[in-house]
Amino acid sequence: MPAPHRLKERADFTAVVRARGGSRRGSRLIVVHAHHTDARAGLPPRVGFVVSKAVGNAVVRNRVKRRLRAQVALLIDAIGSGTDVVVRANPASSTASSDALADDLRRLLPLGRAA
Question: Is 3-108 in CATH node 3.40.640.10?
Answer without folding.
Answer: no
